[in-house]
Automatic annotation (TrEMBL), chain A:
GO biological process, one term: amino acid transport
The family this protein is said to belong to: Belongs to the binding-protein-dependent transport system permease family. LivHM subfamily.
Organism, as annotated: Thalassobaculum fulvum
Protein name as annotated: Branched-chain amino acid ABC transporter permease
Transmembrane found in the keyword field: yes
Pfam families per UniProt: BPD_transp_2
GO MF, one annotated term: transmembrane transporter activity
Domain of life: Bacteria
Localization per Swiss-Prot or TrEMBL: Cell membrane
Position of the signal peptide: none
Automatic annotation (TrEMBL), chain B:
Protein's UniProt name: ABC transporter substrate-binding protein
CDD domains given in the database record: PBP1_RPA0668_benzoate-like
Entry's family note: Belongs to the leucine-binding protein family.
Lineage top rank: taxon: Bacteria
Source organism (scientific name): Thalassobaculum fulvum
Biological process terms in GO annotation: amino acid transport
Record-annotated Leucine-binding protein domain positions: 27-363
Assigned keywords, A-Z: Amino-acid transport, Signal, Transport
Pfam families: Peripla_BP_6
Signal peptide: 1-24
From TrEMBL, chain C:
Alphabetized Pfam families for the sequence: BPD_transp_2
InterPro entries: ABC_transp_permease, LivM-like
UniProt organism field: Thalassobaculum fulvum
Upper classification of the organism: Bacteria, Pseudomonadati, Pseudomonadota, Alphaproteobacteria, Rhodospirillales
Domain of life: Bacteria
Name of the molecule in the record: Branched-chain amino acid ABC transporter permease
Keyword Cell membrane listed: yes
Ranges that cross the membrane: 12-31, 37-56, 87-104, 111-129, 161-189, 210-228, 248-271, 283-303
CDD domains, per the entry: TM_PBP1_LivM_like
Length: 290, 389, 330
């Protein structure tokens, strides 16, 4: 292997790209958990839904950007239905019941995808704007992957600002810290929960639409991404934005460089990492509260 | 779907053409395929092909009726085995057809063999199934993992390729396909400069592997991926621009007509080898493509032709006059007929099919991608590796 | 706290009777299903032991079950040991792996415990999937069943094997019930109810939890050995986390923390899945909806609901209520 500097730069970009995709997914899951104390195993299915809706939207409109716009909205709408019908009632039902209800949802979504889009894997084209490759620092890299990295950073920045600078952010932080106390202070936590849940779903849908041109769109893509996402969230610390960032980067880099340096161990590496973190820091690297 | 039992009656359809034999035997077929789970699309194609064959050649069976009992393996070996026991012990089928996953085939092999029920394998390509673990009751009309890839070794070397990097998913089929190709390529004089087996169905991002492959400086990359992984791989291969310096070759499942259009322009120019492509020019194939498209609304894939030929093999065995399980198994091990994929026969030494392997390039056709045949390796026969029937 | 109430005893006897009657009246495929139910019932009992009574919801019981199956397969096929030694190996293997998981994860709670078990289970899955020694993704064939011909039993006969598994499931129930009534079981329930207090009382909590999880794993390993002999073949799919998920479904469906419910849930899920699959390829959706409905309807599960109604109605004979969902309707 000719391991020159450009090789490692490209691999670092690969790791960043995967990290950002994981971040888009895990941030919604983690904030929903932190605020609503709700474990949503169907989060991966919402991501898959985003990809399927994206494929249909882009085929219908003939443009990638239709998928980019429609998928988050459509998934958020489905999220609203889920919230009203299920999530609201399940909030105080304990983690096991939540795990089970959302496990049931995974099954339901799986067959809905089969009924709606068939069993044959689908694909989606990249946007013309970001197709091809970009040359910089002596390397050539797919432009669309740079777009994913950029998008992840933009979402990250936006969420940080939202959380630290706006009233909604303050309420969310208060809710994560102590939901009962926030409610006592006259804050309509219920409405904030609802908004946050929809936002998390929209981000999952966005991740699906963004991932679709790189990956294939299959009925089991949601279950396949679920485990890495959960690992990110648990390693980072449930409910913590910083944790989601740290966890995504950690997993993205471990998976990518594991594949490069120790391919035989790559399949086990992520789980081993999770086990180690849970043993040493049972609440994750950046627990949302003390 | 699974409850459906299809009766095909030759007597009713061709009362005039064939004087109905008074005591024509009726046959019961257990069709064991994945109708749910990751291979559901493959199961459906094989099912459609099988039914089309029986309908097409109904008249040749001298008044025999064929009843099909369908069962779903869910692509789970234990489920596959339970359903096999049901079909053999409870439904008392005369012959079993199907099996997509090699894992399921491995699970049911011993039971099928001991029960003495003939099984026509319509997909699962594990080399061992017609090698070390072969059985005189198990006949394979699809392909073996080695068979599909072996011709590519010589062919690539003759095209001037000297150094190859290989990639495949880390499971039995991935290993067999790559190992057979590598052995053939090295025997021809080529060098394998490196290779990697990627975690099966958990690898979504091939970026790290592609970057690594490129840096190994090969003349070409040879891969095996199928289904969703194939789509991801081909698209990511194109997006990294590897195609400009290192062309992509592989096992034909990589650009199967079943999902090649999901790969889009990225698949153009990829050269692979497979036992069937819909563009084979022969009257048999033209008729098959026409009939299949008319019946099911889309062009047939290699999976459809495997199902179709499973049906054809059954018809041939029935025509030979075999009535019980043992005689059917015996007859199936000797059938030969003209398939849409060219002349085929079962090798009596292994019970694996002997067939042409087509080396084809995926090219732009009328609106959709199509297959341009570059070369044909005629009558490719697997070596008898440890098979003692 | 666990009580072997007359209702539970009645239900167990009824289920056992139903299983035996079914075994002698059904066809070959029914026997396959009955065997599957009996084997899964053992794992479900094992899972209910820790999840229902110890508060340790596990997503690795599929992996423990698979480890047991592989232990049996390796002992008999690779090492050439007898079936009895193979069974012992499976019990020991499942137990040891579970003890380790329990010991390491004892400090975590709630969703973190679930995730920790998930991680360990998936590690085992990835290991067996990639391991050439155990046949990798293709699994290991050629497993023989226990030879009990000395006792006049032919386990290669479908009915004989189904009844053998049913008896073992009954024994597993008896073992779990005895364990839960002992001081050990009471302590376990105490830890679930108030872990800090138990710790303050000077109890080595982690050791207790690990022992409970190990016992549960040993039972799961036993079931794994039975599954390996049932199919005479093992494959890594047994260890996948979705198997653990389906096991949790069984326990919840039947009634968490009732023990009888675990058995009932295994029966209902296997038979419902089979019946639904006869009519549609989309049985996933039906199972998913049933699961959601079960949790939404109060989450007591079938037997939990029966116990609840029974408790309200006061003492009456248990038989009429307990027949619901027993396997004899299929």
């Amino acid at each position: 292997m000719t391991a020159d500097a450009s090789f490692w730069i490209v691999q670092t970009l690969n790791a960043l790209q995967l990290s950002m995709l994981l971040f888009l997914l895990s941030v919604g899951l983690t904030v929903i958990f932190g605020l609503l104390h709700f474990v949503n195993l169907a989060h991966g299915s919402l991501y898959a839904l985003g990809a399927f809706v994206g494929v249909s939207a882009s085929a219908f409109a003939g443009s990638y950007w239709a998928a980019f716009a429609v998928a988050p909205v459509a998934v958020a709408l489905v999220g609203i239905v889920l919230y009203v019908a299920l999530i609201r009632r399940m909030r105080n039902a304990g983690p096991m019941n939540q795990v089970l209800v959302t496990f049931g949802l995974i099954f339901v979504f799986l067959d809905l995808f089969r009924l709606g889009w068939g069993d044959i894997p689908l694909g989606m084209a990249e946007p013309d704007l970001f197709s091809g490759r970009t040359e910089f620092l002596g390397i050539v890299y797919p432009t669309y992957r740079l777009f994913i990295i950029g998008l992840g950073l933009v979402v990250l920045a936006a969420l940080s600002l939202l959380l630290s600078r706006t009233q909604l952010g303050a309420i969310v932080r208060a809710g994560v810290d102590n939901g009962d106390m926030a409610a006592c202070l006259g804050i309509n936590v219920e409405r904030v929960f609802f908004v946050v849940f929809c936002l998390g779903c929209a981000l999952a849908g966005l991740a699906g639409a963004v991932a679709a041109p790189v990956l294939s769109v299959t009925t089991d893509m949601g279950t396949a991404i679920l485990i890495p996402t959960l690992v990110v969230v648990v390693i980072g610390g449930l409910g913590s934005l910083r944790g989601a960032i740290a966890g995504s980067l950690l997993i993205g880099f471990v998976q990518t460089f594991g594949a490069v340096l120790a391919p035989q161990a790559a399949a086990v590496a992520v789980y081993a990492l999770l086990a180690v973190v849970l043993i040493l820091r049972p609440a994750g690297l950046f627990p949302a509260r003390g | 779907m699974k409850l459906s039992r299809t009766w095909l009656s030759a007597a009713a359809a061709l009362m005039l053409a064939v004087p109905a034999t008074a005591h024509a035997k009726d046959y019961k077929v257990g069709l064991l395929l994945p109708y749910s789970g990751v291979y559901a699309a493959l199961g459906k194609e094989i099912d459609q092909g099988f039914e089309l064959a029986l309908q097409t050649r109904l008249g040749e069976m001298a008044g025999s009726k064929i009843e099909i009992v369908r069962e779903d393996t869910e692509v789970k070996p234990p489920v596959g085995l339970a359903k096999t026991r049901k079909l053999i012990l409870q439904d008392q089928v005369d012959v079993m057809v199907g099996i997509v996953s090699s894992g399921v085939l491995g699970a049911i092999r011993d039971f099928v063999h001991q029960s003495g029920t003939p099984l026509i394998v319509a997909n699962a390509g594990n080399d061992d199934a017609t090698g070390a673990r072969c059985s005189r009751f198990i006949t394979r009309v699809s392909f073996s993992n080695g068979q599909v890839n072996r011709p590519m070794g010589d062919w690539l070397y003759n095209k001037g390729v000297r150094k190859v990097y290989t990639l495949a998913p880390d499971y039995a089929a991935g290993h067999q396909m790559i190992e057979t190709f590598s052995a053939a390529f090295k025997a021809a004089g080529g060098t394998i400069v490196g290779g990697e087996f990627t975690p099966f169905r958990t690898t979504k991002d091939f970026g790290p592997y592609l970057t690594k492959a490129q840096s190994a400086g090969p003349d070409a990359i040879f891969v095996f991926y199928a289904g969703g992984e194939a789509i991801s791989f081909v698209k990511q291969y194109a997006s990294f621009g590897v195609a400009d310096s290192v062309p992509l070759y592989g096992s034909g499942f990589l650009t199967s007509p079943l999902y090649v259009n999901a790969e889009g322009p990225a698949a153009k120019g990829v050269v692979t080898s497979l036992h069937y492509v819909p563009t084979i020019e022969s009257p048999e194939n033209a008729a098959f493509v026409k009939a299949f498209s008319a019946a099911y609304g889309h062009a047939p894939s290699e999976y459809a032709v495997q199902g179709y030929d499973a049906g054809q093999a059954l018809v041939e065995a029935v025509k030979s006059g075999a009535t019980d399980r043992a005689a059917l198994a015996e007859a199936l091990g000797k059938v030969r007929f003209t398939s849409p994929r060219g002349p085929v026969e079962i090798d009596p030494a292994t019970n694996n099919i002997v067939q042409n392997i087509y080396i084809y390039e995926t090219v732009q056709g009328d609106g959709t991608l199509t297959q341009k045949i570059l070369d044909v390796a005629k009558a490719v026969r697997d070596p008898v590796s440890g098979c003692q029937k | 706290m666990f009580h072997q109430t007359p209702l539970k005893t009645g239900a167990v006897l009824l289920l056992a009777t139903a299983a035996v009657v079914y075994a002698f009246t059904t066809g070959f495929f029914g026997l396959e299903l009955l065997t599957e139910v009996a084997i899964l019932a053992i794992v479900a009992i094992a899972l209910d032991l820790v999840a229902g009574y110890g508060g340790m919801v596990s997503l690795c019981h599929g992996a423990l079950y698979g480890v047991g199956a592989y232990a049996f397969a390796s002992a008999t096929v690779l090492l050439g040991w007898g079936g009895g030694a193979g069974m012992a190996m499976a019990v020991a293997g499942g137990g040891a792996f579970a003890w380790l998981i329990g010991a390491v994860s004892a400090r975590t709670h709630g969703i973190f415990f679930i995730m920790a078990t998930l991680a360990f289970g998936q590690m085992a899955y990835a290991y067996f999937f990639d391991s050439p020694l155990f046949g990798g993704s293709d699994g290991m064939p050629g497993i023989a069943r226990l030879d009990l011909s000395g006792a006049g039993l032919d386990l290669n006969d479908s009915r004989g094997y189904a009844l053998f598994c049913t008896v073992l499931a009954l024994l597993a129930y008896a073992l779990a019930a005895t364990l839960l009534r002992s001081g050990f079981g009471r302590t376990l329930v105490g830890i679930r109810a108030n872990e800090p207090r138990m710790r303050a009382l000077g109890l080595p909590v982690w050791r207790h939890k690990a022992a409970a999880f190990g016992t549960s794993g040993a039972l799961a390993g036993l079931a794994g050995a039975l599954a390996a002999q049932h199919t005479m073949y093992v494959s890594p799919g047994l260890l996948h986390w979705t198997v653990s998920g389906e096991l949790l479904i069984m326990v919840i469906l039947g009634g968490l923390g009732t023990l009888v419910g675990a058995v009932l849930g295994a029966g209902v899920l296997v038979f419902v899945k089979h019946e639904v699959a006869r009519f549609t390829d989309h049985w996933h959706m039906v199972v998913g909806l049933v699961l959601i409905a079960t949790v939404l309807s109060g989450g007591r599960g079938i037997f939990g609901q029966i116990e609840f109604l029974w408790g309200r109605r006061g003492a009456r004979r248990p038989e009429p209520a307990a027949t619901e969902g027993s396997p004899d309707h299929a």
